[in-house]
Amino acid sequence: MKVYLSGEIHTDWREQIIAACEGLDVTFSAPVTDHAASDDCGVAILGAEPDKFWHDRKGAMVNAIRTRNAIGAADVVVVRFGEQYKQWNAAFDAGYASALGKSLIVLQQLEHDHALKEVDAAALAVARAPEEVAQILRYVLTGTLPG
Q: pLDDT tens digits for 88-144?
């Protein structure tokens, strides 16, 4: 199973899921989680931009190549909405995955339920902790409940 881990990049939630899925036949992919590299990839590769809008746009477009490919190849897309920042890109990834008919798991805290109600409605599961995501993946692959 191919799983794309999208969203918040400031905590170790990805590593928690990957560790909890040890022994399962799962391949994980993710966006570039080095914030500076992600922001600056466009200008580092395609040349400087004097205007921050175009600087950011170049980076977003180069990152979109990676993101579209990874979501397209994924069987399951997990989108994490963190506590500290508004992840508009995560919401976009969730919508894109949903539009492609991908199995979508949203990972969020209770406080975001109202703000993310439309995203949650498109998801097949809304988890509160990385361990719950891992348990879902384990159940999907093995049919066994946590124990």
A: 899 999 999 999 999 999 999 999 999 999 999 999 999 999 999 999 999 999 999
Encoded amino acid at 91, one letter: A
Q: What angle do CA 70, 76, 81 make, to 5 degrees?
A: 85
What residue ranges do the domains of the chain occupy?
Answer: 2-31+73-142
As a whole number of angstroms, the distance between CA 128 and CA 108 comes to 5
d(CA 1, CA 3): 6
Give the position of tokens 């466009």. 42
| CA distance linking residue 40 with residue 79, whole number of Å | 23
Please state which architecture CATH assigns to domain 2-31+73-142: 3-Layer(aba) Sandwich (3.40)
pTM above 0.90, yes or no: yes
- pLDDT confidence band for 85 (50 / 70 / 90): confident
Which ranges of the chain does DSSP label H, i.e. alpha helix? 13-20, 35-46, 52-73, 88-99, 117-122, 130-142
